[in-house]
Design a protein that fits this description.
binds guanosine-5'-triphosphate, Rossmann fold, 14 helices, alpha/beta, binds magnesium ion
Length: 417
């Protein structure tokens, strides 16, 4: 394993997390090389001195694989493999490997395959001379087409086919979302860094038994279950894949279907490990992925988990100046503070009721039915043109949900002064 403190990468090296990643992939680390560097070298990423150190350790420990806690260009990876005479894996490759091992569902497997193909397509570059032999003429490849071009074409075709399959699954998923919307169930998504306790909290809130383990990326496929805690009504919780700093871009793109579940949520529970030393950095990494997938404008309640690992940290709800909950301190393992979390969730969902009026012509009968459905109508009168004038009271989450389903709603809704 090679982990360097690299100023140019703009993020703090976390050797412990790197070791956890390697262990989570099932690898057994026989040695670790650390160091500090301003910027990577073009040819080998490492300086020649560091390269010698790695080569020596590899021979000494008879290692089969060298893993770097950094991302390499295709040519750096190839140069290192040639020089060290063994397989080299970079950080993105390592994360992809873990995802590939964890994928269980059909969708999960396709998502991982898409990410792997995209990673591979960046590796199919000029310079792989053994792939570049000119084999023109007869056969599958067109005249004058090189092996490299044909490899690229095959990868492109496979990417297109996997994308198509994923699109179909996503369409089915969106039908599921629509039916949840119709049944008025709110979705609350658990998001956060990997291994912070999202699945443990999910199990507590929904009384289920999804896999939770002291491993990075224990959860890969999203699970949805109804909330089964006092004070939480008509709510579906969704447990999702955890994030990590510098999540490979190919994974974010490939996991779009899974991540879309997050975007459809009415409320996010952003789970943090209160006992982690770099909790703020982890929060920033998660926030930047949320921003990237367009979920940064969804209201989020922070959940500081694992308070049992801290000295004298009572479970509590932190509130903003208006008295609204912003964070809850809990231990999902011991169950402490979980009642406070349920209270805070129901407050978030019910708080800040919107009161307003709207006129509904007969053409918008389905919107009127929806407002009745969610119990928002407080008064109604119908004028002689058949236009219904309704007074409504609803919370902001229902408001957002109805606005999403009925594009006209936000335009015709007038907030009562
Ligand atoms: N001490 C302590 N450990 C906890 C607590 N909550 C969860 N854990 C442990 O933390 C580890 C990770 O828990 P998970 O629920 O799998 O975490 P996750 O966020 O779902 O992780 P990924 O799915 O891998 O991203 C498990 O070993 C849990 O037993 C807690 O409140 N206190
Ligand atoms: Mg999990």
């Amino acid at each position: 394993m090679v982990s360097l403190r690299m100023q140019a990468e703009g993020w703090e090296e976390n050797v412990k997390e790197f070791e956890e990643l390697v262990a989570s992939s099932g690898g057994y680390a026989v040695g670790l090389v650390t160091g500090s560097k301003k910027a990577p070298e073009a040819r080998f990423f490492l300086s020649l001195g560091k390269l010698d150190e790695v080569a020596l350790l590899r021979l000494e420990k008879s290692a089969d694989l060298i893993i770097l806690n950094h991302n390499l260009s295709a040519s750096q990876e190839r140069n290192l493999e040639e020089h060290l005479k063994c397989k080299v894996l970079d950080r993105n490759g390592l994360i992809l490997e873990i995802f590939a091992q964890r994928a269980r569902t059909h969708e999960g497997k396709l998502q991982v395959e898409l990410a792997q193909l995209k990673h591979l397509s960046t590796r199919l570059i000029r310079g792989w001379t053994h792939l570049e032999r000119q084999k023109g003429g007869i056969g599958l490849r067109g005249p004058g087409e090189t092996q490299l071009e044909s490899d690229r074409r095959l990868v492109r075709a496979r990417i297109a086919s996997v994308r198509n399959k994923l699109l179909k699954i996503r369409q089915q998923r969106s039908l599921g979302r629509q039916s949840r919307c119709k049944s008025n169930a709110l979705t609350i998504s658990l998001v956060g860094y990997t291994n912070v306790g999202k699945s443990t909290i999910f199990n507590n809130l929904t009384k289920s038994g999804v896999y939770a383990a002291d491993k990075l990326f224990a959860t890969l496929d999203p699970t949805m279950r109804r909330g089964k805690v006092k004070g939480i009504r008509n709510t579906v919780f969704s447990d999702t894949v955890g994030f990590i700093r510098q999540l490979p871009h190919s994974l974010i793109e490939a996991f779009q279907g899974t991540l879309e579940e997050i975007c459809g949520a009415a409320l996010l529970l952003h789970v943090l490990d209160a006992s982690a030393a770099d909790v703020e950095l982890m929060k920033d990494s998660v926030d930047s992925v949320l921003e990237e997938i367009g979920a940064d404008n969804i209201r989020a309640l922070i959940v500081y988990n694992k308070v049992d690992l801290l000295d004298h940290c009572p479970c509590r709800i932190d509130r903003d100046g208006d008295g609204n909950p912003v964070a809850v301190w809990v231990s999902a393992e011991t169950g402490d503070g979980m009642d406070l979390l349920a209270n805070a969730i129901s407050e978030c969902v019910e708080y800040d009721s919107l009161i307003g009026k709207l006129s509904l012509p007969p053409a918008l009968a389905s919107l009127r039915a929806e407002l009745y459905n969610c119990g928002a109508v407080t008064k109604e009168s119908i004028d002689n043109q058949g236009v219904s004038l309704v007074d409504v009271k609803m919370n902001s989450i229902e408001y957002a949900r109805v606005s999403k389903r009925f594009k006209e709603f936000a335009d015709i809704f007038t907030v009562a002064s």
